[in-house]
């Protein structure tokens, strides 16, 4: 790969023995914090979409998630994700550490961090680690060699978020926020060690060392690192580990409230596939309606309705008809079939 030869000396999953040892000094322990990671959630939902997998609680990732794969930048990211029976490493640049600060800015800051990854770092993570044992897909290699992989990856994650995650994010985030609040209280009452030992049966903490059972072997020593513990819904009930480098150290653990969701009444199948708002709009389009009519009927902002209609139209589930200055939407035959009409 001309122009992008990077040494393989850094800590990366090179063997399959099953234990990660992360040694943390006192300063690193003192800087441990809790935060939600929207980028990490999006990457895992994209992984379900590209592999045909099903979440153990929420099931199928949805038609909108699969439709998003038609976008070339979404496909670019998807080709770099881990697959069952294949490499477990996913490029860390796709899941930046959530920065301290208001949660409303986290996703935008993470996407900015993805786009700002230096080309040589993107080349290392993608070509020297992710595809260490196999050929790099052609369009991925082209993007890396052109120095645009990071910018396209950020755009792909943004596009996938808009098409497949945004509509259901408020519900997921409420579960994740509740976990953060509960564990913050435990940290204040019982200490950091108690929280680390309670995250997951595969995670142990003793004598300044995190021991994590995983499908590769790795040992790292961190001094003055900022380690983020992030509750996860998409990866539930697995652990998501990213601790090789102190600048990107994130440990994703199963959020407590996700398991409880399995015992709750399930939403209708179409709502799980499309998201509640899109499913409601699709169900209301047996007769042609304008954006304004739908906004009034469903008590949604016209801009929100317009966005959802755009996703449904691109997915082939609704048709758009113009009558002079008025645009009306109605369900297509594919939309009728999805609803069982």
UniProtKB/TrEMBL annotation:
Xref: SUPFAM superfamilies: Winged helix' DNA-binding domain
Domain of life: Bacteria
Name this protein carries in UniProt: Transcriptional regulator
Protein source organism: Streptomyces longispororuber
